[in-house]
Design goal:
alpha/beta, 10-stranded mixed beta sheet, 24 helices, 37% helix, globular
């Protein structure tokens, strides 16, 4: 993800330098980060005809959107996604490798933001004993404060504690999350403060949640208009406790008692309404965007994830949740325009991960999508351990598709750790549902530069990760037969929206598909195809003699790519070359002949050579 953010900032800064006007370089008073939990990129396009004009469409039409942004690691979970989005780096650097993970020093499973050295504020439970200490790098929220000598505020808000604590960073002036159950309170940790601010206490006293839970969850529009989803009653969706079918309407007043009381709101779109209500109170109560310093508000909308887990990606419930969330976005933008001021705030919207389609549904269509059998896999590894080493106690823990070996036991048996790990890695490949395996030693001594192994390397943190890392077969998830989850390195989990909007943001989107459409439209031999190279555009942007056409218009059309069937052929057998120097020599000769370093083509052709070496 980091490379896409850097690319956008590079393009933005260079293009702005062409203009004499400083209109797009206005410093915002408030930066608002929005993470939509479990939002696949295709939710932007799938429901686009049903969205209103002032929510997602406004962000897309007036902001800058990256259409092919992916997380570059495996372990696409909530905590990891939030930490990665706000630090700009991957788990191998920031140290958050899951929501929970096995601590090989403490010999127990730990939660990403638990910290018993701090106490709860706003509740008598231990739900407020949190801090960002396990995230070992700074966030953009930290850097904004550091860059202003600690002036300005940074505040995190989410129903989930980890989705508030991690984005808010180490230097946050506040982070708040929702304690449901029988409490119905927004709470925090003594890491940030010793007492809740007055505006939070006032909000907790208003008890808006009872209003939301006083009526059934019905579809926003007539249910027969939800044509982008499966039929309402299908076997691939989960239910609330007490329901006999996963169908509308969902009787929340009746269901709340058996579903955690106030906690039930998390699994409905009204959880997003509640979050937005609290966000508005925070903006007013903290006077965000009112000082001469930049404030930062990090918001995460968690209910999209709860709904997605229960019903899956193709349910009417998920479509209804996003149609309602589109209205939440419109409401937030209007509120910011009024409270902070038009042109005085900057927004980015992204997601922490996507989600897979429900495997049971895919299986019904004869599409491979297995369920991973965790218990059987552990038993399988035990048998491997006994057959190869005469002991069933060499494995300390198996979690998050990682195997932690018992190093003390291995030492006692005078075994070689690297050899033991290699055997487990090789044997694990024989288990149905495992696609690839790689040992920690391999990741420490090899540099992978592409594919899923590069992603797993970006996830591997030598200090805290396991000894063998596993990659499941595409489409595989570990859960029951209804609903869905996430966590893989495949595109359905990694592909997320990134949209920038507001002060300092030039409208548009990642340009390649538009450039190709423009090229096809003109169909001219004089069309300069080398301009598709982003770096060349950067150089042109600094040209003091560049001509700017004040009468230019925005090209906003995309021509669908035409696919041409080709005749199959048989490759001529070749003898593989293993000498690296010879490989380099062959590639350079090919490149020199086919891609000469002509004026205007140097950057593109240098990229071609680099890609060939890769």
């Amino acid at each position: 993800m980091k490379k896409y953010l850097l690319l956008l900032f590079c393009i933005g800064s260079t293009l702005y330098s062409c203009k004499k006007s400083t209109k797009n370089n206005i410093k915002p008073s408030l930066v608002v980060g929005i993470v939509v939990d479990q939002m696949r990129y295709d939710y932007l396009t799938k429901y686009v005809n049903r969205y209103g004009d002032y929510g997602f469409k406004k962000l897309l039409n007036e902001g800058y959107s990256l259409t092919n942004a992916h997380f570059n690691y495996i372990g696409t979970y909530t905590a990891v996604g939030h930490a990665s989005a706000y630090t700009g780096t991957s788990p191998n650097q920031h140290g958050v490798i899951g929501n929970n993970w096995y601590d090989k020093y403490l010999k127990k499973s730990i939660y990403c933001v638990d910290d018993a050295t701090y106490r709860s504020v706003g509740t008598n439970s231990n739900s407020g004993e949190k801090s960002p200490k396990r995230m070992v790098t700074t966030t953009i929220t930290d850097q904004v404060r550091l860059g202003q000598n600690m002036r300005g505020k940074s505040i995190g808000i989410a129903i989930k504690d980890r989705s508030s604590v991690l984005p808010a960073g180490h230097t946050a002036t506040g982070a708040y999350w929702y304690e449901g159950k029988d409490e119905n309170k927004w709470i925090t940790s003594s890491y940030y403060m010793d007492e809740l601010p007055t505006w939070v206490k006032d909000f907790n006293s208003n008890n808006k949640v009872d209003d939301y839970l006083s009526k059934p969850w019905k579809t926003l529009y007539p249910i027969d208009s939800y044509t982008q989803s499966l039929i309402d009653d299908n076997p691939y969706e989960g239910t609330f406790i007490g329901e006999t079918s996963p169908t509308f309407p969902h009787n929340l007043p009746m269901l709340r008692e058996k579903n955690g009381n106030y906690d039930i709101i998390k699994g409905t779109p009204f959880g997003n309404d509640l979050t937005l209500d609290f966000v508005k109170s925070a903006i007013v109560g903290e006077h965000l965007g009112k000082s001469d310093a930049i404030d930062f508000l990090a918001i995460s909308f968690s209910s999209t994830d709860y709904v997605g887990h229960q019903y899956g990606t193709d349910a009417i419930e998920i479509e209804d949740t996003y149609l309602r969330f589109d209205q939440n976005i419109a409401d937030l933008l209007q509120f910011l325009d009024t409270e902070v001021g038009i042109g005085k705030y900057t927004i980015f919207l992204t997601a922490d991960h996507g989600a897979s389609q429900v495997p049971a549904y895919l299986q019904s269509l004869n599409i491979p999508a297995p369920y991973f059998r965790d218990k059987e896999f552990t038993e399988f590894l035990t048998e491997v351990s006994k057959s190869h080493f005469g002991s069933e106690y060499l494995i300390e823990n198996v979690s998050n598709y990682q195997i932690f070996l018992d190093k003390e036991k291995i030492k006692q048996l005078q075994l070689n750790l690297v050899e033991v790990a290699n055997i487990f890695a090789e044997e694990a490949l024989l288990f149905d549902g495992i696609y690839k395996t790689v040992t920690a030693k391999t990741l420490q001594t090899t540099q992978f530069t592409s594919g899923v192994l590069e992603k797993i390397q970006n996830s591997y943190n030598q200090k805290i990760s396991g000894d063998i890392l596993l990659i499941p077969t595409p489409g595989t998830i570990s859960r029951g037969k209804t609903g869905t989850t996430h966590g893989s390195a495949y595109s359905y989990d990694t592909h997320v929206p990134i949209i920038f909007y507001g002060a300092g943001i030039k409208k548009g989107l990642s340009h390649k598909s538009y450039f190709v459409s423009l090229e096809k439209y003109y169909d001219s031999e004089y069309f300069d195809k080398t301009c598709k190279n982003v770096s060349r555009v950067c150089y042109e942007s600094y040209d003091p003699l560049i001509h700017i056409n004040a009468q230019s218009s925005l090209w906003d059309k995309i021509t669908e790519q035409e696919y041409v069937e080709v005749n199959k052929h048989t490759d001529i057998p070749t003898i593989p070359i293993t000498d690296e120097n010879k490989i380099v020599d062959i590639l350079v000769k090919w490149w020199t002949k086919k891609f000469p370093m002509n004026e205007g083509e140097r950057n593109n052709n240098a990229y071609v050579l680099a890609a060939a070496f890769n």
